[in-house]
């Protein structure tokens, strides 16, 4: 069997080594850090500190259920300050932030690998997140979870690609995965802490060998995964959600705009990969 298909099926992930060169990673990281102190570039920034004061159980909920947002003024004070009130922000319009690097991101080799699993793959969603080191409790992404809350196998074609932009030296990505299909695990909840999972399952947790410049492809609906809290002041991760064109998520892709300049530089294969985006 093909190595990629075999690994995605058995352990739920596949390493894409040397996805980006180090200079590109540094330039992109700079662009992102430059963007996050401007409220216009931020789509979601929840005030978790305030939410936890009001309800200590809030970490059990999806981020989206938190009612309190950081104010524009708080964001303008800079991430070193607001990063103490929130664990994570979502940036608006990542394609704009990446600029010409977006073309490199749609790597033809990567598209070919994904085509082994999803015949006509399309980007359904892009999430550029920054997470901060602070004393707040972890939230949903730090808890062990699957993206699909059913215990049955999810057969819709969806894969995620996560690319870290913050790693230094020889550090490994904080992404963790339980390398056993969820249908083989019984009596689990959708969100769990490390203490809540049975010992034999705990043994299956892997820290994939993803370093600076690498990316990981994983199956988030069928395998439990989580991000260990970071030791970095800012953790920067781009997640590309790849779907089949029939997947219900396809409508979400319409919120991403791709400008003609970028579009002109794309190959036919790359254009097809982001054909769910709107042109502006
Ligand atoms: Fe997830």
Give the topology, please.
Layout: H1 3-10, E1 13-16, H2 22-35, E2 42-45, H3 48-54, H4 72-76, H5 79-82, E3 88-91, H6 94-98, H7 101-105, H8 108-115, E4 121-132, E5 144-145, E6 158-164, E7 175-178, E8 191-192, H9 199-202, E9 205-206, E10 215-218, E11 225-227, E12 234-244, E13 257-258, H10 260-264, H11 268-273, E14 278-279
Parallel strand pairs: 13-14
Antiparallel strand pairs: 1-10, 2-3, 3-4, 4-12, 5-8, 6-10, 6-12, 7-9, 7-11
Bound molecules: fe (ii) ion.
Fe (ii) ion binds at residues 145, 147, 220, 225.
What are the defining features of this structure?
11 helices, single chain, 22% strand, Jelly Rolls, alpha+beta, seven-stranded antiparallel beta sheet, binds fe (ii) ion
Protein described:
With about 280 residues, the chain is α+β, with helices and mostly antiparallel strands. It has a single domain (about 5-280), classed as Jelly Rolls (Sandwich), CATH 2.60.120.620. Helices cover about 25% and strands about 20% of the residues. The chain has eleven helices and 14 strands. The protein has helices spanning about 5-10, 20-35, 50-55, 70-75, 80, 95-100, 100-105, 110-115, 200, 260-265, 270-275; strands spanning about 15, 40-45, 90, 120-130, 145, 160-165, 175-180, 190, 205, 215-220, 225, 235-245, 255-260, 280. A seven-stranded antiparallel beta sheet has the order 1-10-6-12-4-3-2. The longest helix is centred in the first third of the chain and has 14 residues, at about 20-35. The model has no long low-confidence stretch (mean pLDDT about 90). It binds fe (ii) ion (FE2). Fe (ii) ion binds near residues 145, 147 and 225.
């Amino acid at each position: 069997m093909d190595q990629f298909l075999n690994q995605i099926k058995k352990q739920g992930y596949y390493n894409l080594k040397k996805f980006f060169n180090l200079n590109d990673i540094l330039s992109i990281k700079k662009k992102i850090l430059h963007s996050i102190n401007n409220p216009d570039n931020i789509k979601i920034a929840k005030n978790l500190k305030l939410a936890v004061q009001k309800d200590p159980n809030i970490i059990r909920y999806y981020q989206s259920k938190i009612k309190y947002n950081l104010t524009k003024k708080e964001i303008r004070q800079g991430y070193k300050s607001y990063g103490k009130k929130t664990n994570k922000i979502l940036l608006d319009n990542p394609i704009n932030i990446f600029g010409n690097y977006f073309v490199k991101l749609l790597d033809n080799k990567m598209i070919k690998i994904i085509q082994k699993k999803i015949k006509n793959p399309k980007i359904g969603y892009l999430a550029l997140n920054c997470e901060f080191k602070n004393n707040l409790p972890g939230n949903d992404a730090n808890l062990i979870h699957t993206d699909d809350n059913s215990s049955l196998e999810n057969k819709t074609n969806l894969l995620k690609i996560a690319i870290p932009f913050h790693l230094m030296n020889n550090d490994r990505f904080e992404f963790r995965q339980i390398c056993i299909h969820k249908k083989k695990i019984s009596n689990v909840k959708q969100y769990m802490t490390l203490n809540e999972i049975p010992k034999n399952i705990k043994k299956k947790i892997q820290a994939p060998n993803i370093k600076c410049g690498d990316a990981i492809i994983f199956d988030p609906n069928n395998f439990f995964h989580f991000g260990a809290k970071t030791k970095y002041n800012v953790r920067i991760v781009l997640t590309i959600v790849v779907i089949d064109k029939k997947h219900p998520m396809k409508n979400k892709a319409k919120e991403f705009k791709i400008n003609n300049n970028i579009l002109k530089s794309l190959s036919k294969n790359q254009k097809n990969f982001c054909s769910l985006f709107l042109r502006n």
